[in-house]
Amino acid sequence: FVSPGCERCKKLDAVWEELAQLYKGSVHVTIASVDCANIATMNPFLCAAEEVKSFPTITLHMDGKKLESPYKGKRQLDDLMNFLEMHLDIWKKEKHEHKEEL
Fold first, then answer.
1. What region does 63 belong to: left with phi over 0, alpha with psi -120 to 50, or beta?
2. What pLDDT is recorded for position 49?
3. DSSP state at residue 55
4. Are 80 and 22 in contact (CB under 8 A)?
5. What pLDDT is recorded for position 40?
6. Distances (CA, A) of 58 to 5, 30, 67, 99
7. Contact status, residue 53 vs residue 6, Cβ threshold 8 Å
8. What span, in angstroms and rounded, lies between the C-alpha atoms of 77 and 67?
9. Which of 61, 88, 56, 89 is nearest to 73 (CA)?
10. Averaging pLDDT over each range in 38-52, 53-67, 75-89, which range is the top one?
């Protein structure tokens, strides 16, 4: 979640684009950016519903559910990839275990 006037958001933009390119075409991962100031798209309402308090705010949703808190780690490509891959591995294991129970 970003705001156009936010300097930290501008710094994150290139890293975010690179991350999006790395996961382009993935069936499990979608990297998105939401401009919280864009009234025309109704994004401010989404940002309020997601309880965005500062910019940029990075959240992760798995199966339509948001993780309990926004990402607080470093905002370098490797750090973001490690965070995403860690949660993706957990999600895949949980899905696999659930299938075995059925």
1. left
2. 92
3. S
4. no
5. 85
6. 17, 13, 11, 30
7. no
8. 20
9. 56
10. 75-89
Q: pLDDT category, 48, cuts 50, 70, 90?
A: very high
The structure tokens listed for 84 are 């995403």
Reading the block at residue 88, the tokens are: 């993706």
User: How many other CB atoms sit within 10 Å of the CB of residue 72?
Assistant: 7
Q: How many residues does the chain have?
A: 102
Q: Residue 47's CB: how many other CB atoms inside 10 A?
A: 21
Q: Whole-prediction pTM value? A: 0.83
Q: What is the predicted pLDDT for the residue at 62? A: 85
C-alpha dist (Å) from residue 82 to 16, 58, 85, 101 = 14, 14, 5, 29
**Which residues, in sequence order, are bridge partners of residue 2?**
35
Of the candidates 58, 54, 8, 7, which has an alpha carbon nearest to the alpha carbon of residue 33?
A: 58
Count of other CB atoms within 10 angstroms of residue 26? 10
Q: What percent of the chain has pLDDT over 70?
A: 93
